[in-house]
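Reading a protein record of the kind used here takes little practice once its layout is understood. Each number in the token line that follows is a code from a learned vocabulary of backbone shapes. One such record is shown here in full, so that the layout can be seen directly:
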Amino acid sequence: MKFTEFNFNENIQKGIESAGFKECMPVQEQTFQTILENKDVFAQSQTGTGKTAAFLISIFQLLGEDKHFKGQKALIICPTRELVVQIEEEAKVLGQHLDFRIGSFYGGVGYNEQEQSLADGCDILIGTPGRLIDFSKSGKIRFSEMGILVIDEADRLFDMGFLPDLRKILSKMPAADMRRTMLFSATLNAKVGNLAWEYMNNPGEIVIEPEQLAVEAITQELYHVSAEEKMKLLLGVMKRDKPDTAIIFANTKHTTYEVAKRLEHNGYHAKCLMGDLPQKKRLKIVEEAKEGKTPFLVATDVAARGLHINDLSLVVNYDVPTDAESYVHRIGRTARAGKTGKAITLACEKFVYGLPAIEKLTGQKIPVSWADEDLMVEDKSEGMRFHFDKRAGASGDHQGRRDGRGRPRNGGGVSRKYSGGNKRPLDARAARVQSAVLAVSGTMDSVDEEIKKSNTHNGSEKQSISRNRKRKNSYKGQKPTDNRSRNRGENKAPASLPMERVSSKNSIEDRLAYYKAKYGEDFQADKGTIKSFKGGSKSGNGGNRKRSGRPVAQRSGNKGPVNNSHANKGATNKNSSSKTSQNPKSARPVNQVKEKAPVQKKGLLSRLFGKK
């Protein structure tokens, strides 16, 4: 059906002609018919089916021709900034012959320009939930003035956690029967359905099956390849197909940055697009891609929806997406508006397990192609390491930088965790999985069995490594402070000793056993001393004993040196006795003998440990 068959305003028809639209796409035709029946629109439609033009043309027609909506405003809610900007651009093309003022409102940029747009007056507001609510709180946007509401990519809004914000906005808008609501979603899940029936008035359902978008219009290829060879295969595909424009999708921002840098080193003008980039830089990269200044984009799923590049030649899934629906959205960047396109997926051992869900969703097996040696191209960046940081998008990388002592800086290279496996040879487990995948030519029947065997084999080894790592880390930072703490284990009494310290309550036999164990068999006691001690004789020296009961060397003031029965060992223990004499707190007997020293009266220690 042609656009001219609908009774649109002549200025709307001029805008449609300026955009180059002639034949209506299914979602457009059904949306126009539902709106003409005075019903709300509840549509399941993938990106690339023309839904943006469907609701924009409907808004123009209602605001310009329907007496119920004349003088009112329209609100379009989107999940991402990129989608907001894209819808605004398309609205300006389709509405270039109309008098409607269009404004976009999203976070990541300053408020001044957007506030000025509101002050000048906006008939059609396009924005993300957070920024719209911010302006609502300040009174600059009144949701009660909105007669038309469009919720685009509803399932994506739910995934990003915007459901509470949506409910807050809807609660401040006119009642469902007083406004016209259009809801578009890639999937009609329970959350989307509940929102539709709660906040919409007798909506007409439109369902555009995914097969009409991706499977039939796009040539798909699947290559099973090891992680270390993915870059070589990507370069081979680019050399073989020679695309004018391409988007390469990766699952992580680190891989995205690394692949973009490797493409640059191999002569391809590529830039990375991810959520961590500053908003102005993201918008600039998207604009350059649309203008053809940046022919190759490497992106995370932040660019999988809402990004429209005319005549996109090729989409490459460098990583198999972990979410099956993301696959459909990724490859939907090509073959838009009835054109054909090509999508290539590189399945490595890390992400190959996402294939069954994708094939179940699309309803067919992705054709498998063989990656032979002729398709591999030498990677000029092989061996280089690339570090990603949030300043992103810095044009230079940090490869090979070292500090003054020759060590890599923190920015000297991406860690192995985020390296995508491009730095290591394929390990045994990965080789087994790769072999199994290649053997079944894309089917996944035998892969699960291989993975179970691999996990069973490696489970005990991983646990052992974890225990060793914990044991090693438990001593981290513990350093001996001196020789005593370092040699504490040598001087400590064995655990089998009958006591931990000497007390006056211990018998002479226990004390003797203790000191023998602690200081060696040199400590002896003559029978007379033991007999005298048992008899209760303390020889008046009890006051020279420490309160702990531990025997100490007797001091005799200036009358002469300390003497004890252990002096006969002085010849062999000269060094140790010298050290002990410097520490009066030591329990070890002091061995000092001076020439011609007068014989002193024996103290308790001397009598107790006399000559054998």
